[in-house]
Amino acid sequence: AAFALTAREQEVLELLAEGLATPMIAELLDIRLVTVRNHIQHIQEKLGVHSQAETVAYAYRHNLV
Asked: What average pLDDT is seen over the chain?
């Protein structure tokens, strides 16, 4: 693929794909909510998608999770 997710972005993507909300992801990874949102924003930019639903759909379609 033309993009490369960081290890942390991959982790966040997997938790999103499991249906976890951003506050739960922040708690699980012991990072701030704003940090989770930044990771999601970076993931979306890299994948060329615009919503969390699109992000998860893309991840499943392209075997990223």
From this structure: 94
Both structure tokens of 7: 């290890």
**What is the predicted pLDDT for the residue at 47?**
95
Record the tokens describing residue 3, joined without a space. 């993009």
Are 43 and 5 in contact by the 8 Å Cβ rule? The answer is: yes
The identity of residue 13, as a single letter, is L
Contact 35, 12 (CB under 8 A): no
CA–CA separation, 24 and 49 (whole Å): 22
Helices marked H in 5-51: 7-17, 22-29, 33-47
pTM of the model: 0.91
CA max distance for the chain: 31
CB atoms within 10 A of CB 55: 20
